């Protein structure tokens, strides 16, 4: 069966987009990371740079002041800031910052 | 007298493919920018890695064996991998010619250089063929290192990520050097990364031979001008083939656009088995690069 070149382009885009659309419609298209369940964090590798102090406190089941203390951050630190942002502010890396929580 | 190809249609085809490539370059740039602006996690936007087809291949083993994803990858990577592999199995490596943003950047760089500086190089077959195997070595190395480190080991070296990541503070020196060399080689050799180094291209090579849609050359009307061979960005000798089944064919359709005789190169779909080559005798052969 002969296929017109322009139609071929539409088939390529339609097939690719169609499968992704099918994935979205059936709920398989998951892009966002979710917070690890409370109490499941074993090491600093389980903590992500995008986590805020509030989220770290929830996952580690520790009060926010304790988290800030372990991170060696001032008690006035905004708990909605992410580890990545705080690491940049502290001129360190998120990995180094996270490691402080397990010292 | 031979029939001329429809000029309007060839222009529309060129434009359609470039618009498609431009769309995916813009989409990937937007996705990356959004992540940098909003951050990651449930409150932000997913990183570029989550929208990478190769990320699906990298995380697949971990997902099968543990039910978990490697950091920065997610179910979306597996959906993308499924879409790309299905596409390649049915149509050949058309993902590379119509969708891949990194392929697009290389293609544009080469064109700019060809117009402005004109310093280009077409490797001989003796160099081209062995170099193509490098892609498989790179694919094997990346998969091995990804599984053994349980991380996206390649991200620090990936020129695609280096180019689109939009966060200079997270770029590694090695990654910058690799990106520089890749872009420089793309200026001189058309789609150099795709042809010799791309691990995703290597993966596609395993599925592309199953393609149901291939380019057929009709010997009866072919005038053996070799314009198709000269136009091919991946050095396939189209003028010497009855059906292009080379897994390197990225279905850019440039050979069809450049063929001066209408309906001599066509796209044919075979639902059950690959299309049979035409039985008409071939006119006398010329040197592949003669005009
Ligand atoms: S020019 Fe033709 S043979 Fe070469 S990659 Fe494009 S579609 Fe395939
Ligand atoms: S472009 Fe290729 S297929 Fe078309 S006439 Fe010339 S040699 Fe034949």
UniProtKB/TrEMBL annotation, chain A:
Residue spans of biased composition, Polar residues class: 77-94
Region annotated Disordered, chain positions: 77-103
Domain of life: Bacteria
Name assigned to this protein: Uncharacterized protein
Organism encoding this protein: Heliophilum fasciatum
TrEMBL record, chain B:
Principal cellular location given in the protein's record: membrane
Transmembrane segments: 15-33, 45-64, 76-105, 133-153, 173-189, 196-215
SUPFAM superfamilies per the UniProt record, alphabetical: 4Fe-4S ferredoxins
InterPro entries linked: 4Fe4S_Fe-S-bd, 4Fe4S_Fe_S_CS, NosR_regulator
Domain 4Fe-4S ferredoxin-type stretches: 213-242, 243-270
Annotated Gene Ontology cellular component terms: plasma membrane
UniProt cross-references to Gene3D superfamilies, sorted A to Z: 3.30.70.20
Subcellular locations according to the entry: Cell membrane
Pfam families the UniProt entry points to: Fer4_10, Fer4_5
One MF term in the entry's GO annotations: iron-sulfur cluster binding
Annotated stretches, region: Disordered: 272-291
Protein name per the record: NapH/MauN family ferredoxin-type protein
UniProt organism field: Heliophilum fasciatum
């Amino acid at each position: 069966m002969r296929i017109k070149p322009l139609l071929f382009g539409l088939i390529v885009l339609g097939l690719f987009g169609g499968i992704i659309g099918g994935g979205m419609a059936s709920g398989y298209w998951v892009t966002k990371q979710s917070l690890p369940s409370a109490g499941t964090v074993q090491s600093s590798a389980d903590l992500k740079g995008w986590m805020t102090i509030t989220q770290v406190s929830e996952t580690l089941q520790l009060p926010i002041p304790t988290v800030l203390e372990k991170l060696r951050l001032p008690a006035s630190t905004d708990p909605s800031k992410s580890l990545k942002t705080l690491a940049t502010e502290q001129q360190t890396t998120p990995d180094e910052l996270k490691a402080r929580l397990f010292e | 007298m031979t029939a001329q190809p429809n000029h309007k249609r060839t222009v529309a085809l060129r434009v359609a493919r470039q618009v498609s490539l431009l769309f995916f370059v813009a989409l990937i740039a937007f996705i990356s920018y959004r992540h940098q602006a909003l951050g990651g996690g449930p409150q932000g936007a997913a990183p570029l890695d989550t929208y990478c087809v190769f990320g699906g291949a990298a995380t697949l083993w971990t997902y099968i064996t543990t039910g978990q994803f490697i950091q920065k990858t997610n179910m979306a990577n597996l959906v993308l991998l499924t879409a790309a592999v299905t596409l390649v199995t049915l149509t050949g490596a058309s993902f590379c010619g119509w969708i891949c943003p990194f392929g697009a950047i290389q293609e544009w760089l080469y064109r700019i250089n060809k117009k402005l500086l004109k310093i280009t190089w077409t490797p001989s077959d003796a160099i081209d063929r062995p170099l193509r195997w490098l892609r498989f070595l790179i694919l094997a190395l990346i998969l091995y290192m990804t599984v053994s480190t349980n991380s996206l080991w390649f991200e620090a070296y990936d020129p695609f990520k280096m180019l689109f990541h939009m966060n200079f503070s997270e770029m590694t020196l090695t990654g910058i050097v690799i990106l520089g060399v890749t872009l420089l080689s793309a200026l001189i050799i058309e789609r150099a990364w795709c042809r010799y180094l791309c691990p995703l291209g290597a993966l596609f090579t395993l599925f592309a031979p199953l393609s149901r849609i291939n380019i057929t050359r009709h010997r009866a009307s072919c005038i053996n001008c070799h314009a198709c061979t000269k136009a091919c960005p991946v050095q396939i000798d189209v003028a010497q083939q009855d059906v292009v089944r080379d897994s390197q064919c990225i279905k850019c359709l440039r050979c069809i656009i450049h063929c001066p005789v209408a309906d001599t190169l066509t796209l044919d779909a075979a639902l059950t088995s690959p299309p049979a080559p035409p039985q008409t005798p071939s006119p006398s052969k010329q040197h592949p690069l003669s005009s």
